[in-house]
């Protein structure tokens, strides 16, 4: 499958401070790709390298089959970009600002701008300086989407948006995907990309620690199991079962983490009188927190 973005051993140093350390990954044409990590993980640095806003210390960056540095003008023409700190002239009205940005791109139909503004409930007559953070973000989203780019690069795109506008944004991402476009969106919030992403990459301290589909990452999560017994909890019996860890006993109730099939646990429980049974899947946010804080496995392959 063709690549929309290729990063090969990408490193960026800021003096003695490391921004990225040997980051390699590929984003496929036509997919929605979530780029996740805590603040300071290297997400914005990566995006600025993609757009040749900063230069790498070493490594290779290709965007839409072109060298990010050598072919920056062509790349910018084919990309829609929303920076994490979108800022424009506050004296302009929203409509004037968007018309100016559209002219810089060689023109965008006014109807397209009005359509997007209506969907985001953005008042095009309002001056930028009078807008809330969320409404300024709407202006940024309109300018990113308005020319129907081949590749959307969005840095924390829902920052400041209320839930209804967030859903409008996700709808637009889905429409872009169905049209065969590629969406690369960075975030530190898993739930923001879970509904639309084909794959997600997780970065920590400038390194790739996971790259997989959301479904496969969810398969790595575990069950938290709590069983109540009519008599003393048979802790030793359950502690020996495959996949059982972090076992604790509170009176006649036993709780543990289960990282494998529940078959052996069910069969063991059937040998006793069970008074209660509760299972809880690990929250996906907790799973990502594991990667953020260093407990996850380092990514070994680009799936």
Write up this protein.
This protein is an alpha/beta fold. About 30% of the residues lie in helices and about 30% in strands. It has eleven helices and 14 strands. It has helices at about 45-50, 70-80, 95-105, 110-120, 135-145, 165-180, 190-195, 215-220, 235-240, 265-270, 285-290; strands at about 5-15, 15-30, 30-35, 60-65, 65, 80, 150-155, 180-185, 200-205, 205-215, 225-230, 245-250, 255-260, 275-280. Mean pLDDT is about 90; it is low at about 300. It comes from Phytohabitans flavus. InterPro entries: AAA+_ATPase, ABC_transporter-like_ATP-bd, ABC_transporter-like_CS, P-loop_NTPase. Belongs to the ABC transporter superfamily. Pfam families: ABC_tran (PF00005).
């Amino acid at each position: 499958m063709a690549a929309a973005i290729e990063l090969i051993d990408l490193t960026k140093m800021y003096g003695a401070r490391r921004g990225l350390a040997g980051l390699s990954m590929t984003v496929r044409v036509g997919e929605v790709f979530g780029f996740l990590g805590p603040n300071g993980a290297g997400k914005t640095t990566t995006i600025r390298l993609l757009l040749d806003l900063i230069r790498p210390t070493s490594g290779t960056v290709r965007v839409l089959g072109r060298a990010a540095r050598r072919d920056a003008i062509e790349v910018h023409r084919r990309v829609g970009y929303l920076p994490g700190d979108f800022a424009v002239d506050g004296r302009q009205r929203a409509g004037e600002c968007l018309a100016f940005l559209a002219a810089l791109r060689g023109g965008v139909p006014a109807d397209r701008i009005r359509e997007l503004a209506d969907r985001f409930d953005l008042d095009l007559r309002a001056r930028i300086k009078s807008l809330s953070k969320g409404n300024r973000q709407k202006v940024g989203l309109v300018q990113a989407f308005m020319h129907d780019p081949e590749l959307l690069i969005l840095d924390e795109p829902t920052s400041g948006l209320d839930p209804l506008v967030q859903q409008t944004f996700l709808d637009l991402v889905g429409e872009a995907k169905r049209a065969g476009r590629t969406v690369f969106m960075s975030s530190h919030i898993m739930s923001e990309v879970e509904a639309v992403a084909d794959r997600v990459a997780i970065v920590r301290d400038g390194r790739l620690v996971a790259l997989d589909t959301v479904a496969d990452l969810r398969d790595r999560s575990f069950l938290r199991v709590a069983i109540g017994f009519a008599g003393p909890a048979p802790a030793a019996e359950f502690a020996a079962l495959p996949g059982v860890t972090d076992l604790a006993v509170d009176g006649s109730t036993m709780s543990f983490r289960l990282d494998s099939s529940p078959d052996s646990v069910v069969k063991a429980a059937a040998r006793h009188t069970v008074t209660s049974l509760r299972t809880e899947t690990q929250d996906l946010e907790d799973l990502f927190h594991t990667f953020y804080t260093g407990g996850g496995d380092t990514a070994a392959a680009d799936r």
